[in-house]
Each structure stands twice: as C-alpha cells, then as structure tokens.
Write a structure and sequence with these properties.
The complex is a heterodimer. Chain A is 0% helix and 51% strand. By secondary structure, chain A is an all-beta fold. In chain A, the strands form 2 sheets. In chain A, strands 2, 4, 5, 6, 9, 10 and 11 form a 7-stranded mixed beta sheet that branches. Chain B is mainly β. Chain B has no helices and 11 strands. Classes of the chains: A mainly beta, B mainly beta. Chains A and B meet through β5 of A and β5 and β9 of B.
Chain lengths: 113, 109
C-alpha cells in the first residue's frame, strides 16, 4: 500500500526560483491538504481541496498555489521562492474533513537559499 | 482564534518511567486527535476522542478528553524506547484541524 506519496523528498532552491511539489494518494480520498511544519510551530495549513477541481486557502496561503486536476493528485507550487518558505512540507488526505483521520506523506524538505 | 498549547515541549525520561503530556485550549473542540510523528516521517493517528470525559486506551497509552472538551492528556505507562517521537494533538475547528506544536518525547534505554 503506497498511501500518500510526495515527490521530491528534498530540494534546494535559490531565491526567486519556482518549483512544484507533487502529492499522490491511492485511497480514493476526496479531501487533500498541504501543510508546512516549522520547528516550534506545529503544522500550518497552506491550501486544501474538498474534491477534484476544487481548492481553498488555508491558514498560510501567500506565496503558494495549488491545483487538483485529478482526484488522486494535489500539486503545490511556489512561483518565486523566498527563504521564509524553507520548511518541511506535508501532504495529507482524508475521507472526512476537519474531524476525520488524516493520512500523511513522508514529507518534502525544501531549502531556499 | 482557536489555539492548542502542548506541554511540556520536550521530555526526556528513562525506560520504565510513567509520563503525562497535555494539550490545552480556551476553546471548545468537537473532537481531538493525537498523532505520533517519527523523524523523517509524517504524523500517524493514534486516537480520536469526541465525547467530554472520554477515556481511550491503546496498550500502554491512555488518552483522556476533558469534560468541557477544551483539553486532553496522554499518559504513557512504563515508557519504552519505541515510544520516542513527536506527539501532536489536533482539534476539530471551524473548517480545519487546529494543531498544537507538539511534545518531543525521548525514552532512554
């Protein structure tokens, strides 16, 4: 069982460069999420999706864009990376929103120089 | 704004000892989840509590939801090195889960 798969696992960018993180889930979940995790700050929601073709802003959406063209995939884009976006990014999916169990990927560590 | 505060932030104890970590808020939550995260991995759900006063046990781990549904605790009996990890609580908010910053637990053999 693959569950939730994130690519790439590690990436180093220079300020101003762009990149896309890919999340794929094979559990047929409707809901998908992108979080960032920084030391001492817990998980912060960037964007989320309640179904194919839908996206919504979370707690910290600025500087990020997302797309969900297929139910199993949720893409997170950084158009012009900044050092403040250095973080570990987690994708998650769930059957239910807000109270349902979240299934997480292994994370993608991004460093912006 | 709903916030969840976890304490302590860091705990290092010897194998065999008991411990309790806390998750507190001034807000009421419809449910509360506890996750454990190991280095280099994503969080994994341990338990969900939904009723005020509810107690759930998972082997040596005991989870309690406060009567007013504003706080929760996790008690580990006879801690083992395999319990090492980051313990995160998350409360069901208005449209998303509200996450605590976590308690980093190290169990020394």
């Amino acid at each position: 069982n693959a569950g939730v798969t994130q690519t790439p696992k590690f990436r180093v960018l220079k300020t101003g460069q762009s990149m896309t993180l890919l999340c794929a889930q094979d559990m047929n979940h409707e809901y998908m999420y992108w979080y960032r995790q920084d030391p001492g700050m817990g998980l912060r929601l960037i964007h989320y999706s309640v179904g194919e073709g839908t996206t919504a802003k979370g707690e910290v959406p600025d500087g990020y864009n997302v797309s969900r063209l297929k139910k199993q995939n949720f893409l997170l884009g950084l158009e012009s990376a900044a050092p403040s976006q250095t973080s570990v990014y987690f994708c998650a999916s769930s059957w239910q929103t807000y109270t349902g169990e979240l299934f997480f990927g292994e994370g993608s560590r991004l460093t912006v120089l | 704004t709903q916030l969840l505060e976890q304490s302590p932030q860091f705990l290092s104890i010897q194998e065999g000892e008991n411990l309790t970590v806390y998750c507190n808020s001034s807000s009421v939550f419809s449910s509360l989840q506890w996750y454990r995260q190991e280095p280099g991995e994503g969080p994994v759900l341990l338990v969900t509590v939904v009723t005020g006063g509810e107690v759930k046990k998972l082997k040596r781990l005991t989870f309690q939801f406060g009567d007013a549904r504003k706080d929760s605790s996790l008690h580990i009996t006879a801690a083992q090195p395999g319990d090492t990890g980051l313990y995160l609580c998350a409360g069901g908010g208005n449209y998303q889960l509200i996450w605590g910053a976590g308690t980093k637990l190290i169990i020394k053999p």
